[in-house]
Every structure is written in structure tokens, then in C-alpha cells.
Request: fold
Amino acid sequence: MDKKQEQLKKEQKETLKLIGILSIGVFILLILSIILMNSLTMPTVTPEPKYIDIDNIEGMNLNDAKVLLENADITYEIIPTDSKTPNKVEKLEFVGVTLSDTGRLRIRIGTTVKLYANEVAQDKVIYLTFDDGPTRDNTDYILETLAKYNIKASFFVEGQDVALYPEKMLATFDAGHVIGCHSYSHVFADVYASTNSFIGEVNQYEQALKNALGEEKYAKVEKLIRFPGGTNNSLILEQNPMDYINAVRENGYKIYDWTALTGDTEGITETNAMIEHMMTTLATAKNKNQPLIILMHDKWPVKENDSLSKIIDKLISEGYYFDTIDNCPEYTFAEN
Reply:
């Protein structure tokens, strides 16, 4: 074989080799083209959104709603309103649904819940409380005055008076006010004879309230209590106040003393003097960073002078808002 033929064979081999390489390249390009076309025509798979179920917070105290959302790792935004009711979730907006069977909320994770509320600092929130009712005459006056201002208050009532005036108690509940226990008899020697005696008085109060309101409405009443004379009265201090406090808490009650008062049971009867006493005690409470819980009495308001209206007018002029005691942290003399 001459050199020319050898050269020709060599060139043929190189050509075949090149053709093979090109064929493989074309095949690879074809496969890649098919993959690309499939990826362009296949539908995009969206991951299923995740949700979390929580209690419905509409109508809830704003601070309680914040805690609930934070514990569930849900972000929120507060949308200010001009409501006269402070720190209450008036409505909310969220991505999700309300579960019709339970009323709970199913919120989409990763979204922000909008809370509509009038967020007010605690040193501008007043808790009006009335002890020792209901009464034949004054309860009606108090309810009418509060309705005039569209204010909700809290009534720590005696079971014996609830039994005497069940219709007044029903009117108080139906008006949207908060009801709490102030013993049954208010006779200190009986109330503070022992912790068993104290709980006995509470049980009697509960039965009287249940009789007045009926089972359905009674079931909606939160367990709140104010000790006659407060948690630091002379009879309880002769014993151990914490024994009584623990006893009622074991029965599911929250306890509230007071931090300000009008002096209506201390011989102060003139309206301006009552207002001055109230403002002085409020200033002291604010300086101590205490909740602003005003003590008044159902049996003592000076109806003829319309003192309650003038007290409320003064508080409004000072820029205060009003809320019910169930939205206030517990406060006792014995623990503060």
C-alpha cells in the first residue's frame, strides 16, 4: 500500500470519528431540548398553604389578643380607632376563615393579622367599681347615669341584696356591666371566721346570683371577687391573708382591691370634695404605677346632687377612658 492510500484511510478514520462525536453531540442536544420543552409545558406546582387555628379574638382585650397571637407566632398590626372603649379588639382582618362549627379562626401562616382597636396606655384607663349593692333606689340611678355616658362599670355585690333585688341584678347584667362577689352577708365576723366560712359565703352569693340571672346568664359571669374591707382588713390581718386569697383562687376567682376612692363611706358627701379626694388618690396610684381602680358604693352615691355624673365629667375632662375590671390585672393590698 502506497503512501497515498494510507493517507486516505487515515483521513477516512478521522472523518468517521468526527461524525461519531457530532452524532453524540446532536443526541445530547436533542435530549436537552426535549427536557426544556417539557419543563416549559408542565404546570407549576404551588405548595399547599399552611394554616393555624386559634380562638376568635374579636371582642377580646387587646393585650390578651396580643399574647395569644405572639404565642402562636402570628404577626399583627394594630389599626387605631376612635372608640370610647379602650384596648378592645373591635374587628380584625386576616387571610383565612372562621370555622363555623367552633367559631375559631383558621389563619394562613405568613400573613399579618390586622387588629382594629383604640390602644390606650394603662395610666389613662379608669375602672369604676361599685360595692354593696344592689339597692332599691341607687342601683337604678347608677345604671341610668352609666347608660347616659355609654360607660360599662363593675359591681361587687352582696348575695343577700341580690336575693332581695334580683330584678336590679338582672338589669345590671343585661346592661353589659360586670358582676363580682362581695360576700353574702358582709358581716365581717362571719365572713372572716375562717377560710371555710369565707368560701361558704361565696357559695351563698353564687346561688343567689344564679337564682337572679338564671342558669344561662349566670354561666357567662366571670368569677371575680372583692373582699369586704379589702385583703388587708383588721380581721384578716389577725390571721393570714394569703390563706383567704389562696382559698378563693382555688375556687377560680380573681381578686380586686382598689387604688383610688371618692370617700363616699368616709363622711365625704359634698360632690366637689368627693372629686378632690378621688383625684388625689388617683394621682397617688399613678405615681405607684398601680391600675386605676376607683371604689364607690351603691348604697352611698348622692343621687340628689347627681354626683356620679359630675365625677364622670371630671374624669372625661382629664382624658380618661373607662373599662371593666375583668380587663384589669389582679390587684390586692396583701400582695402589693
